[in-house]
Amino acid sequence: MNIAIVGAGKLGRKVATALLGGNYEITIIDKNEEKLQKVANQMDVMTIHADAREIKVLQNMGIDNFQYLLAATDNDETNIVIASFAKKLGCRRVIARVREPEHMNQFFFIKEKMGIDSIVNPDLAITLEIHKYLAEKYTLNNGIFTSGKIALTEFYARHYPRVIGLTMPQIKEMFPNMLVAAISRKGKVIIPHGNDDIHREDILYIIGEKDEIMELNKKVHVKGKYTNLRKVMIVGGGKTGFYLAEKLSEFGAAVKLVEKSKERCYYLSTHLKNVMVLHNDGTDVSFLEEENFDEMDAFVACTGFDEENLLLALTAKQHGIEDVISKVSRESYKELIERMGVDMVLNPLDITASNILRFIQGTKKIISSTLIQGQAEIMEIVAHSHMKMIDKPLSELNLPNGMLIAAIHRGEQVIIPKGDTTIKWNDRVILVSLLKEMADLENLIKNKDRD
């Protein structure tokens, strides 16, 4: 399958790296020769140094022979134009990254009139995950995800004290027909193995046969959604801060949005309703204290600088704020924040790349997908005869630590797999994977004959 990516920036490279795990044929186009050289040195892809807005460039590369094009430059209008041109020149499906709120307000018009199949917005994607966490508290619709006879429940370990301190084998003895698919610990989602044990403040994701999971769910959940979110402070009035303030205000929370650019503050104050916009440096702790920082139910650090978000998250935790969320793009910084006990750490690139990959795969491979706190995916895959994971014991698949085959639907049978379990043709496989393992996931579900 031929896939074109316009823009050799972070998102373009992230998607290309993941797709190469599935042996797609990738072509990357960019006007910056230095960026292309860097890509060529790191990946086995075709590179074209050109302006993809020129119809001749798209025609010369044979865009009508491409199944997908992703326009991911740093300019919305450029992405819309390139995606539209590619579609009209014969590319089967086109995706455009669009970030500006003005464009998102006419989302459906742009898609329909410009012929664009999918629009992705990293800032809106991360906003939806934060909103889902804060406004609903449970990320899986009150703790239940179901597919046929399989279900997954999510709950705090402290709500079922019997599991605290137990290792995975001990959990298996307690719940023989269930499996701990993932654990959220201090803002980091992990895939548990072997002697990993359960901590009191862990959030557990347990999967198993539907009736048994529903019974467990009744014991660990209080009816209704968590709605005790009253006061939220957001530092960073960029696109993420804008979208999040708007959604949380609509939810009914009292939102304070701190932004150090006076010009940006004017924009925010004229485009947001019922949001208090404050012009100041969010790293000024004395200012935060003056604004009743300690009384906030939640704090979100989403400036454009990872270093600032790191400092802000640490400060918020030291002030005892219950829910502290940070946007971080660099993996090295993300690990630092997790060790501080931040409640949720999100990487917009990971979330957006995952959304793009699921669109490209369509319904042929992955028939459903749900994010866990913006860091991992629960997905259901129909096993086809050409996939590499077919007819091999799971112990021989060499899955990375960040990936787990959690359950298998085989006709009417529900299988909680072991090391000697083998996936058969037409099985419906429930798989849990960290977003950082996207390339390994593509490799797992790719065709056998594409090595």
Note the beta-strand portion.
25-35%
Q: Based on DSSP secondary structure assignment, what is the total number of beta strands?
A: 22
Any idea how many domains?
A: 3
The CATH homologous superfamily of the largest domain is named: NAD(P)-binding Rossmann-like Domain
Low-confidence stretches: none
- The CATH level-2 architecture of the largest domain is identified as 3-Layer(aba) Sandwich
CATH class of the largest domain: Alpha Beta
Write the layout of secondary structure elements.
Layout: E1 2-6, H1 10-20, E2 25-30, H2 33-42, E3 46-49, H3 55-60, E4 68-71, H4 76-88, E5 93-97, H5 101-104, H6 107-114, E6 118-120, H7 122-136, E7 144-147, E8 150-156, H8 168-174, E9 178-185, E10 188-190, E11 203-209, H9 210-220, E12 231-235, H10 239-251, E13 254-259, H11 262-271, E14 275-279, H12 285-290, E15 298-301, H13 306-318, E16 323-327, H14 331-339, E17 344-346, H15 348-365, E18 366-372, E19 376-382, E20 403-410, E21 413-415, E22 428-434, H16 438-445
Parallel strand pairs: 1-2, 1-4, 2-3, 4-5, 5-6, 12-13, 12-15, 13-14, 15-16, 16-17
Antiparallel strand pairs: 7-8, 8-11, 9-10, 9-11, 18-19, 19-22, 20-21, 20-22
Helix pairs in contact: 1-15, 1-16, 7-10, 7-15, 13-14
